[in-house]
Write a structure and sequence with these properties.
Helices cover 55% and strands 0% of the residues. The protein is mostly helical.
Amino acid sequence: MQKLFNKLSVTISALAVVGIVGFSAAVVAGGTDEGKKLAFNKKKGNCLACHQIAGGDMAGNIAPPLVAMKARFPDVAVLRAQISDARKKNPNTIMPPFEAHGILTSDEIDKVVAFIHSL
């Protein structure tokens, strides 16, 4: 009886974890879709004006291509700070301070960060 209880407990735990991971992946996927729309929107993020991004048309080449972002920015907070206001790290940057100038809201920046970090 104890073995059956242990197996049942492990099975239920595994199903719970799979459900949580599946739900989280769906939420992140939705966030990255919205982030992509913002990043590609010429009146919002307009990341393609300067960066090459997979799936983007007429990309710029004055900034680094956005690839391998998890390796380049293992700490998402650092990437968020860069997108929010790159002047803090490099006062001479030409990257717009998206949050400080109200180009993107804090929520929109979070969505763009989720998308860019997924690249």
